[in-house]
Structures are given as structure tokens and as C-alpha cells.
Amino acid sequence: ADANWKERQAAITAIDELVTQAKPLGCTGAYMEGQCGEMWAAMKARLKDTNKNLSIQVLALLAKVADAVGAPVDKYSKHIFPNMLSLISDNKKTVRDAVLHCLDAWSRHVSTETIIKYLPVALSVDAPAGREDAVKWSADYLSR
């Protein structure tokens, strides 16, 4: 990863612009693994970025990607969900809110089994505020 946060932010912005301009996103099938494969790895890495503003931007971008890709995005949840859901433990409410927004978007397109598989990551965080947010979101999701 680049040490310069501005370069990392520029990459996030570039992907965001592509997704915004190309709905539905044509990343399905073999294309998703090929040309978009690096995109998933880069976004996964940005979820662990020390600059939380970049993590928030990536969460918003991941929400857009889920809406653009639709149901096929379920296949990529294994790359994104663990890092995304672990961010629910962040002390900053803006980060937790971004996680919940992203989770809302992904939950519209992935299977219930996928959500249930990864929810323990969010429900088991040490931070009480994050755990509370995760429990509230889970209860709302499961009551739909």
C-alpha cells in the first residue's frame, strides 16, 4: 500500500467515479475475478487503513458497489464482510454509522445465510457501542 494517504484516497475516488457512472456495474462472471479482482483486494485493505476517513469512504463505495452489482456481490462477501464488520468496534460513531449503511446496502443483495454467517464478527466486538449497534441492526434485519 502507498504510504501517502492522498494516493490511497485518489484510488478510492477513481473507483467511486467508475461505479457512479456505470450502473449496473459490469463486473460479473469471469470479469469480476479478472479485472475487478484487484479492486476487491484494494478495498479490503482500505477497510484496515489507519486513516479512518479513508475507511469511511470505502464503506460508502462498497455500498454503491453492492447496489451496482446486485445479487452476484454475495460471492465477494467473504472478502469484505470480516474487515467491514470488525470496524463496528471503532470509537467513532461516524465509522460505525458507515458500517451500518454499508451493511444495509449489502443486505439488500446477499443471502440471509451470508449475513448470519458473518454477524458474529460484529456481535463479538469488545466495544460496547459497536456491539450495541450490531445487535440493533441484527434485530432490525431479522425482523424484516
Per CATH, the class reads: Mainly Alpha
Helical fraction:
over 70%
The CATH homologous superfamily name equals Leucine-rich Repeat Variant
Mean of residue pLDDT values: 87
What string, H for helix and E for strand, traces the elements in order?
HHHHHHHH
Q: What is the CATH-assigned architecture?
A: Alpha Horseshoe
> Shape from CA axes?
globular
Q: Beta-strand level of the residues, as a percent range? A: under 5%
| Class from helix and strand fractions | mainly alpha
Query: In the residues, how many domains can be counted?
Result: 1
Query: CATH fold name, please?
Result: Leucine-rich Repeat Variant
Intertermini distance: 39 Å
Task: Please provide the count of β strands.
Answer: 0
Number of helices: 8
Provide the gyration radius in Å. Answer: 15 Å
Instruction: Note poorly predicted spans.
Output: 29-34
Major sheet: none
Account of the protein in words:
- With 144 residues, this protein is mostly helical.
- The chain has a single domain (5-142), classed as Leucine-rich Repeat Variant, CATH 1.25.10.10.
- The protein is built from eight helices and no strands.
- The protein has helices at 5-21, 30-34, 37-47, 52-69, 77-86, 93-107, 112-123, 128-142.
- Helix 3 (37-47) packs parallel to helix 5 (77-86).
- The relative contact order is 0.12.
- Mean pLDDT is 87; it is low at 29-34.
- GO terms for molecular function: microtubule plus end polymerase; microtubule plus-end binding.
- HEAT repeats lie at residues 80-118.
